Amino acid sequence: MWTTNAPAVEMPQLFERGGDLISFAGGLPDLSRLPLGDLAGQLSRLTRLGGRTALQYSTPHVARSLLPAINDLMAREGTTAEADELVPTGGSQLGLTAVALGLARPGEAVLCQTPAYPGALAAFRLAGLTAVGVPADAEGLDPQALRDTVLGLRAGGTTARLLYVNPTFSNPTGATLGLDRRAGILRVCRDLDLLMIEDNPYGLLSFTGEHVTACRALDPDRVVYLGTFSKIFAPGLRCGWIAAPRHLAGALRATTEVMSLSPSAFAQAALAAFYTGQGWDDLLAGYRESYRERAALMTSALEHEFGLDGDWSWGTPSGGFYVWLRHRAGADTSGFAAAAAQRGVSYVPGRHFSIDGEHADGLRLCFSYPAPAKITEGVARLAQALSGRRDLAQVAR
């Protein structure tokens, strides 16, 4: 762990539940879509027949039985990975930290699309890296701005070798980089010898079932891809993977081994057993249907409560978990959190997704977890918290 006197990155409180609270804060999946009866039988057989192996320590490699399940998922976005390119992780968060610790040195800069996932910013801070935001335009991260930012950093003596992107249904905005924009960013990476970190928890959760080609598919030697089962299966198993260029996989494997000693053989075996028995198609289709319904309910409720020309604006999601709400006059949304809590609703203020406070006028709403019947009520509560004129005047100052 890299330590300095600088304050630590503050992680938002995401997973508080209970009572009358309607939480739009944490990115929790809708586990009602898991076939728990089938899963219970598979886990029982796994424990009974292979428990002495599955519950033991294991080596820092993806289990051979899990390789087809991972490559099936990655192939839907146009890419695959060989066994020696894969590193198992306890979800994407461990993968982010491993990349930050294993592929960079304290004091270096990591370029980031913003607003940025707070867990990534925290991982970079833990490793002693400095996150630097890259300007965006209407299509997302701007390749020319990336080039100018990197050259400016290097001219000032700062090493910049990593670029972090969450390119598909991003956290927190839900936006997706188009294929041409991905290619343009990768051209800059090749020109300036940057390594892209492609964080992809939501890429398979398109509401239409159509997929955008992964950045790794466009340039596998230039991209470190982070995958996870947390959003497309269940987060409680804490299982994910890194697909890295072969010459970097060894360093990442060594780093993850220090961090966790051993990946969960049981979690890998459980996922492999599920995939062998049922594949991914039905589960992914069920998740997409659930999130499509919830997203439509949320955006409809927002339009009803706020109107399209009021103080707040938002985009219509086409996949993933999130709606990004912004205050047109630039109010810091942290100032509304207490009023929202009093009304029994929670969200994540935009400052958690900023590097230098540049997105404090936004807030993230997660639609994936609340029951459909609660979404409309939750948005109504939120509207009450956000529409008080006295509170608004105080926050805007």
Which labels suit this protein?
397 residues; alpha/beta; Aspartate Aminotransferase, domain 1; Aspartate Aminotransferase, domain 2; 2 domains; 7-stranded mixed β-sheet; 4-stranded antiparallel β-sheet; 13 helices; 15 strands; disordered N terminus
Task: Chart the SSEs and their pairings.
Blueprint: E1 22-23, H1 36-54, H2 67-75, E2 86-89, H3 92-103, E3 109-113, H4 118-126, E4 130-134, E5 136-137, E6 140-141, H5 143-155, E7 160-165, H6 179-192, E8 195-199, H7 215-218, E9 223-228, E10 240-243, H8 246-260, H9 265-278, H10 281-306, E11 312-314, E12 322-327, H11 337-342, E13 345-346, E14 348-349, E15 362-366, H12 372-386, H13 389-396
Polypeptide structure, described:
The protein has 397 residues and is α/β, with parallel strands linked by helices. It has 2 domains: 22-27 and 282-396, Aspartate Aminotransferase, domain 1, CATH 3.90.1150.10; 37-278, Aspartate Aminotransferase, domain 2, CATH 3.40.640. It is built from 13 helices and 15 strands. Helix 10 runs parallel beside helix 12. The longest helix has 26 residues, at 281-306. The chain is globular, with a radius of gyration of 21 Å.
